[in-house]
Amino acid sequence: MEFIQTLCMAMGILLLFILGRVLSLYWVTPSRVYRKLRRSGFGGPRPSFPLGNLKEMYNKEKKHPPFGSLTTINHDIHSTVFPYFARWIESHGKVFTYWLGTKPFLYIGEPEFLKQMSSGILAKNWGKPNVFKHDRKPMFGKGLVMAEGEEWVLHRHVITPAFSALNLKAMMGLMEDSAINMLDTWSRQITSGEKDIDVERELTTMAAEIIAKASFGLNHQTGREVFDKLRAMQITLFRSNRLVGVPFSKFLYLKQTLESRRLGNEIDELLLSVVNSRKASPQDDHYQQDLLGILLKENKLTSRELVDECKTFFFGGHETTALALTWTLLLLGIHPEWQTQLRDEIKEVTGDGPLDSTKLAQLRKMGWVMNEVLRLYSPAPNVQRQARGDIKVGDRIIPNGTNIWIDVVGMHHDPALWGDDVNEFKPERFKDNIHGGCKHKMGFLPFGFGGRMCVGRNLTMMEYRIVLSLILSRFSLSISPNYSHSPTIMLSCRPSHGLQLIVQPL
């Protein structure tokens, strides 16, 4: 009897300890951090733990402004894809705190604050929000996009040579072949009587094929499997609200958690078999200069790290280019006069000869168009960091460990930075200014900023020019009546229902 009483007392003490620990982690500590941020001068919407501000962020009763009719498509996407940020800016300005569950975030939509905050901080000294590292582990693992510190330095060092001018030039033929195959398919579809082509789907498939072959030497079947599973994981992780940052949310959304882990494991197995096969085989000249070949040659990453980098660059390497091209075709479909201008420039620069890297660089107007597209419909809608030490900005202190959310879409659509025509498609704004006339150079961030700027940006720009040149040389484009303009954020900014265009041979 005495033993049972002692056992019950011990269990009671253990239960109280666990309860106290839970309350400390998910109520007391967040409340203390909240007060500390307020004392540091950062206002924002009042959180309600353990949900933080998620209830307001996902309030479905809020009506979004319409995007307009087919003939008057509205490019003011910020108030629709991030309606809660648009509301909070009106009340709290362009720098404030908000909470994902029990995780505080410092929202930044002010380029001067961003400049002062990031000044003097080395790329390796930025962290990534732990809540996202854990949530997105099945998709990115510990690849470059999530790496920190000396680990990030090592990965960046071994990856950068893969995107040298010489290696990119070697990929041009493969890019042209994949693009031509896609366009030949369009021709057959048009001949068979199809009026609409979902170019978003076509471009995404083509870009995935290019990155699979050019960077990893994957055959069609393996590349397709990896692509399909990554897309399924993207939908699982980002299409629905899973209360990220709320304690035990993974158990509340157990089906999605298990599904993402299953897909992650299957992708890992596929890519690990590729890595092991390449390690076991003699170095083929065809593979030595692709991304995986360079990583293997450096011999500084483990097989696990190699798999994570393959996942990271397979996803990022095709998604950014495909979406930039997708939104470009939408805007060119609305503005046929820019199709004509680009077509004339392509003919003037290339004549009847083949494309080469020198000629691609001479397509200046195409560069203006690309920048304007990346401004209006940035595929990467935000940049995330985590403070690794207190950061002083003016008379305010960002405490160590604070998560930081930099709203790229918000700054790209800010009339205070761009003028009253901020939501209009005007590529000429980049004619004489690489920042497009933005009043602050940190207000235009198509590929991020600082030392952690996208390592594959030159690959994206080259592939963009090649594919767009080939498309405009063969077809004219107009918007299909079946297209519904509804941009959405699913990690990237993409059309909710694809992009249906009427494509006609020249």
TrEMBL record:
InterPro entries in UniProt: Cyt_P450, Cyt_P450_CS, Cyt_P450_E_grp-I, Cyt_P450_sf, Cytochrome_P450_Monooxygen
Keyword field contains Transmembrane: yes
UniProt superkingdom: Eukaryota
MF (Gene Ontology): heme binding; iron ion binding; monooxygenase activity; oxidoreductase activity, acting on paired donors, with incorporation or reduction of molecular oxygen
Record flagged with keyword Cell wall biogenesis/degradation: no
Pfam families the record matches: p450 (PF00067)
Gene Ontology biological-process annotations: secondary metabolite biosynthetic process
Gene Ontology cellular component list: membrane
Binding site for heme: 454
Annotated signal peptide: none
Cofactor: heme
Record keywords: Heme, Iron, Membrane, Metal-binding, Monooxygenase, Oxidoreductase, Transmembrane, Transmembrane helix
Subcellular location: Membrane
Family note: Belongs to the cytochrome P450 family.
Family matches, as PANTHER family: CYTOCHROME P450 FAMILY MEMBER, CYTOCHROME P450, FAMILY 715, SUBFAMILY A, POLYPEPTIDE 1
Protein name: Cytochrome P450
Organism of provenance: Kingdonia uniflora
